[in-house]
Amino acid sequence: VQLQAFGGGLVQSGGSLRLSCAASGATLDGYVIAWFHQLPGKEREGVSCIGIRDGVTWTLDSVKGRFSISRDNAKNTVYLQMNSLKPEDTGVYYCNAETKNYDYWGRGTLVTVSS
User: Fold this and answer.
1) pLDDT in the model for residue 67
2) 85: nearest Cα among 115, 49, 50
């Protein structure tokens, strides 16, 4: 599975962005897709994830109500809608596809939120 994350950019505080994680090479059926946030020198932190088969989601408390994850199985794509963005949301966002036996990462997309 190859993952490509895109949709990042520069946005003012309070603005919105929608990140996309597009998969190729195989269907995402059976995977859990997660978005991670990373600041320079810090570890990646899970932000939200979704089960492709059952649609069950989890979202980090600090972004709950502002970020939402969704999937389009026909497009083999997972989205992260980010609203009411804050400067602390700045960083590189990565998507990850994981099953019991496999773990794939895409290249990140940079989000910069100006105050």
Assistant:
1) 98
2) 115
Confidence category of residue 53, pLDDT binned at 50, 70, 90:
very high
Confidence of residue 24 (pLDDT cuts 50, 70, 90): very high
Reduce the secondary structure of 75-113 to three states and give it as a string. HCEEEEEECCCCHHHCEEEEEEEECCCCEEECECEEEEE
Name the phi and psi angles at 12, rounded to 5: -80, 155
Confidence of residue 40 (pLDDT cuts 50, 70, 90): confident
Contact of 89 with 35, CB cutoff 8 Å: no
What DSSP string describes 41-78? Answer: TS--EEEEEEETTT--EEE-GGGBTTEEEEEEGGGTEE
Distance CA 69, CA 23 (A): 15
CA distances from residue 91 to 7, 39, 41, 63, 95 in whole angstroms, order as listed: 13, 5, 11, 14, 13
